[in-house]
Design goal:
Number of helices: 12
CATH architecture of the largest domain: Orthogonal Bundle
Length: 318
């Protein structure tokens, strides 16, 4: 297993290099730069040219990329164009809230989707099956921003149960406590998780239907095992491989969806930071977030491979 993971990491290195190269060129294709957004009537063209030279924006793209990559290898992501703070510091302040939101959303999605998918498969063509199918299609089809706005209107403005946004209650009683954080986390996590829950539910149902038709399921029942034990121990475990397969894809989708969700709920994570960086043409911050996101995707793919061996002992990595 360890040797396999090392090989996968070595394969991932050129992939990460290609991702950074493509991202760097795409980011710099956007019209304008950070200097163009500096609103200061006192600056002359000479001043703007000096500022571009100071930021390294006057060099060719390939030279700038080589400089950036060389600094990354040394562990330096550069400084933000907006406030001259280290990019690693700015991202470090935001990565915790984003991971908390993403992981909570993923856990909620699987806790909701797997039981409903199993019940739907065991009660095929019943009203439960049809109802879960409708719920799954709604979860997949309805955009997260629509769900977010609807949740804010209903649960915050009408019922006044949950805060409209942010991560803590500013100046309120119990501000910054664990319960306060959880209260602010509920709506964005549920909204972000519902889109993933729909597809996980459909995969679970489909995989369970295939397993329920297998001979070993009939053999387990013929031995007198309780139906619940047959479904959970023999059925769900064997149906788990396709469900685990989409785990890394779901996490990638959640990280992408967090950009919109964080903006709507004013959640102080990397999603909001990347939108701010794009509006400011803050190339070092954008590249730093792209690199971190790519690394996180690689890590989650490796974790998925490791989970395979736990779920199915027949799988071995040599």
């Amino acid at each position: 297993m360890f040797q396999y993971l090392i090989r996968r990491l070595l394969i991932a290195l050129p992939v990460l290099l290609g991702i950074t190269l493509i991202n760097f060129y795409i980011v710099n294709l956007a019209p304008g730069d950070a200097v163009d957004l500096m609103v200061n009537p006192g600056l002359t063209k000479v001043d703007l040219a000096l500022k571009r030279e100071q930021l390294g924006l006057n060099e060719p793209l390939h030279v700038r990329y080589v400089h950036w990559l060389g600094n990354v290898v040394k562990g330096d992501l550069g400084n933000s164009f907006a406030d001259q703070r280290p990019v690693s510091q700015r991202i470090g302040e935001r990565v915790g809230p984003t991971l908390a939101l993403a992981l909570t959303s993923l856990i909620l999605a699987y806790l909701i989707a797997i039981p409903i998918g199993v019940i739907s498969a065991t009660k095929q063509y019943s009203w439960v099956d049809y109802g879960s199918t409708v719920l799954g299609l709604v979860g997949i089809s309805v955009p997260s921003f629509f769900l977010a706005l609807g949740a804010i209107y209903f649960f915050s403005l009408k019922l006044n149960w949950l805060p409209t946004g942010g991560m803590i209650t500013i100046g309120g009683a119990g501000s910054g406590t664990l319960s306060d954080h959880l209260l602010h986390l509920i709506m964005p996590a549920v909204v972000l998780g519902l889109n993933s829950a729909g597809s996980v539910m459909r995969y679970t149902r489909s995989s369970m239907l295939d397993v329920l038709r297998q001979d070993y399921m009939r053999t387990a029942r013929s031995k007198g095992l309780a139906e619940r034990l047959v479904i959970l121990k023999h059925g769900l475990r064997n149906a788990a491989i396709p469900i685990v397969t989409i785990l890394s894809f779901q996490m990638t989708g959640i990280l992408g969806g967090a950009i919109i969700t964080e903006q709507i709920f004013q959640w102080p994570g990397m999603g909001r930071l990347v939108l701010e960086a794009i509006s400011q043409r803050d190339y070092p911050v954008i590249m730093g977030i792209n690199l971190l996101t790519a690394v996180m995707v690689v890590v989650f793919n490796l974790l998925t491979d490791a989970v395979y061996a736990v779920v199915d002992p027949r799988i071995s990595y040599t």
